[in-house]
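Researcher: I've been going back and forth with a colleague about how HTH-type transcriptional repressor KstR2 C-terminal domain-containing protein might be arranged in three dimensions. Neither of us has a model we trust, so I'd like an independent prediction. The organism is Streptomyces aurantiogriseus, in case that matters for your notes. Sequence below.
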Amino acid sequence: MRYHAAHREQAFVGNHEIGNLKQPHRDQVLRLRRTNERGLRTVIERGYAEGEVTVA
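Model: Here is an independent structure prediction for HTH-type transcriptional repressor KstR2 C-terminal domain-containing protein. You can compare it with whatever you and your colleague have in mind.
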């Protein structure tokens, strides 16, 4: 998240261009993305359950 916040344009281009990657690189990137999203979701859900995070 810090990278995406600090480098918004690069992150946008990187996300936008995933479809242009060749296999197996595309699948590797998509697996990493899913892993990161699950981790972030877990942190947010845990913070919400503990009253530390407010979800709008």
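Researcher: What would you highlight for our discussion?
Model: I'd start with this: The longest helix spans residues 25-49. After that, consider the following. Residues 21-56 form one domain.
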